């Protein structure tokens, strides 16, 4: 797995060089972004990235059926895509959305945490950290166009953006529901939620594993706006224009000042956090909980 | 006073051993919990504890007329009861309520702080700390069924629970009103309120010594629910069932992560806090304020 | 500039001695406060101070046309006035308001930051710090009677008070809009806002440089009350009476406990903050932004 990450890193840096040449020429890239995303393995891309160089806005569409689970592949591709956009001077903002019906992202892929051993758990957890560090710490304006349910890691991703617009569909829900599965949202999930909805609401939400209805999510401040489903992306685009009307350098320094402490708490303790996670997730009792949950999911499908 | 505490501790540990034998046998205790509470002195129990082993829920009823003042006896009994329940594996949640009309608890017993000298003040303050540490740091689900007014220490007790249900009676109020008496809520009262209703509301509430009406308390987030007085306990029982549907270990780790920093701030500085309190409360000007307040209370009664 | 500050300091200390003699006699000062405020230079006073010794309430009226800009003179006079009132035992509360139409204060005087060189920038920034430290850390009750628009530094001043009453005029706005000008609100502006309206609202407000309408300001908690314009001052006076009904010593200790951490963060890092500001504001790009903004303002006037 370590070798996989190294391979990805090497591949990315190659991609990034060619990309940076491409934009240094001042021309828009002819090659669609998502084609660049294909790993040189046989796996299909789980994230489509479309950058409109005229507006400086990229749309990142999650397309990992059936529920945009954050597998190691998904997370690695996400981090690579974010890094490329971050380094691309023609890109100032990114909109995250789903290409699948009814779901934004179902969160961390539980099969990556079940029965895979401590080494895999560590590699996986570093990728989860990397996803959050890249997103929460992004210099770009980040907007979540939440066009489906968004539990656990999906909610974290939304919370890590600058602005959240959700489809006003009564069947959708959003929240950090980890306790329901017998696991625990790590401190940086907790901090991110705390920064968004405050300490009391977070305490209640995390202990109860609350999945908020869209209207409750709006009331609690978990999302900023509810709009009809077909308007989620256009509203996100309009909101992005408003955020991009602010001079980048002032906005970026301000954002960094607001988020630095929260980010430093993880980035200066990544391996401790990995070790804590690995020790927790490999416990027999936790593995048993996850196994039961997976069995329940399979049964539901059948 | 120190000897009293030692005596209590010894008595408790005896109680706890017999109790743990009793529950290890897997049978419900025949002996009602509140009978175990009687100290082997002539004082009557100020807190009745009923544990329903079938549900895992204990109801702790304050019964110290006239107003459930938190005297040294009350606080010691509270801490002992909490510790017993905490160690009793058949108990997963506790509901705090009052057996007296119109009052949940009037807060710290001022006669313990007036004219008793620094040694007594120190013993008393350690008991106040212990009450909070046991309650705010409890592994159990804690719900306040606030069926009466709840000023000062009574409010702190409610704020230290996981969930607060208050009787919707316009004559009841709740708040940390210490400044009105010329005293000051210590930093951990402040932190507990801050964690619940946020910094700005806390700043205003503490400076003005605000006693909130029930509807204002709901609006400010000081309580979670208002229900008709006769439904306070049943609503608390229903809420408890919801909280107990979450796996204990996930909920407990989450709760501890949320509250650890606030708890550590006191538990690593208890003696400094005791010294600060003793120095403050034994000041002539403060003693005079308390004396006037007590005289006013006596006059009101007559 | 350093000599100017020294001169002011000396002048003040003279003033303060005569003043303290005057009040020690237990008589109200015959000499109106604002006459004492005149610097022994030819500049006219920018702040009028009227202390009513019978109520213990001072009204500080900003009268620096056209928009009560916080120039170095304004800030120096403000700090001196605050210090005098703080030391005057007959004064327990101060109301800040504007004597000019439509504007509370337009915030920091940009001409003090444009084209003046690093030495002046440092002196100016120390005066901005001093204004905030004196106001946010005041032992007196401080109430902002916001009878006009209150952008940037004007908003900071309002946020640093204990209570905020704003004129309900749809043409007025309030907010920390620094990013709109291409600059950045420093960390203690951010902390002050965060303490008032919470982390999420602050993050959004600061990144977008939001200027809130009065109703949005009320909703966000940026102000505590909206009243018709002609009632701003009387409402402030009534609110002051309520705050002054609390024993000073309890209120002051409570206020200090709530604000100490935020204040210490700046007061223990003043020179670092000065250096950061000077380095930032003297950048070519920032100077260019400010120049453009000033040109735009001039054009608008013409």
Automatic annotation (TrEMBL), chains A, B, C:
One of its GO terms (biological process) is fatty acid beta-oxidation. Its main location: mitochondrion. It catalyses: (3Z)-octenoyl-CoA = (2E)-octenoyl-CoA; (3Z)-decenoyl-CoA = (2E)-decenoyl-CoA; (3Z)-dodecenoyl-CoA = (2E)-dodecenoyl-CoA; (3Z)-hexenoyl-CoA = (2E)-hexenoyl-CoA. Pathway: Lipid metabolism; fatty acid beta-oxidation. Its EC number is 5.3.3.8. InterPro entries: ClpP/crotonase-like_dom_sf, Enoyl-CoA_hyd/isom_CS, Enoyl-CoA_hydra/iso. GO terms for cellular component: mitochondrial matrix. Keywords: Acetylation, Fatty acid metabolism, Isomerase, Lipid metabolism, Mitochondrion, Transit peptide. It is an enzyme of class 5 (isomerase). One of its GO terms (molecular function) is delta(3)-delta(2)-enoyl-CoA isomerase activity. Signal peptide: none annotated. Homotrimer. Belongs to the enoyl-CoA hydratase/isomerase family. This is Enoyl-CoA delta isomerase 1, mitochondrial. It comes from Denticeps clupeoides.
